[in-house]
Amino acid sequence: MPSRRIEDLHPALQTLCRQFMERCQAAGLDILITCTWRSGQEQDQLYAQGRTAPGAKVTNARAGQSAHNAMLDGKPAARAFDIVPKVNGKPEWNAAHPHWQIAGRIGMELGLNWYGRPGAPFREFPHFELPKDVR
Ligand SMILES: [Zn+2]
Fold first, then answer.
1. What sequence ranges are listed for the domain D-alanyl-D-alanine carboxypeptidase-like core (predicted)?
2. Do residues 131 and 111 touch, judged by C-beta distance below 8 A?
3. What CATH architecture applies to the domain 6-38+76-129?
4. Distance from Cα 28 to the centre of ligand 1, integer Å
């Protein structure tokens, strides 16, 4: 099972993720974290989706290549988290919903690399990543 725990994020991202959740709540958004850390095996299963397994392609990263697989001192320390805004209590997957833009702006204000921003190399609205220069 991929983790949804904030504690499985990189320490710097734990702080940013909590700030992100607080600011989203203050803006009237109801945010669900769908994934923080996932194992290499789980990453490869996801990579197979849309290639050798049914479903739509959701990632270009194999095991160890995703920010969600990162470890620090032998422990999960994901460098990204995925979210979905809930509207009327239900996940709103349609990225045209304005709550996605508000959440994206809040993440970017905190210095996170939001893959839903216009011009992102691989557009992935749920994905917020710790900048590479943070160790
Ligand atoms: Zn992600």
1. 8-70
2. yes
3. 2-Layer Sandwich (3.30)
4. 23
| Nearest in space to 106 (alpha carbons), one of 29, 10, 12, 8 | 29
Strands 90-91 and 80-87: antiparallel
Q: How far is the CA of 24 from the centre of ligand 1 (A)?
A: 18
Residue type, 88: N
Q: How far is the CA of 88 from the centre of ligand 1 (A)?
A: 24
User: What pLDDT was estimated at residue 112?
Assistant: 98
15-66 tens-digit pLDDT: 999 999 999 999 999 999 999 999 999 999 999 999 999 999 988 899 999 9
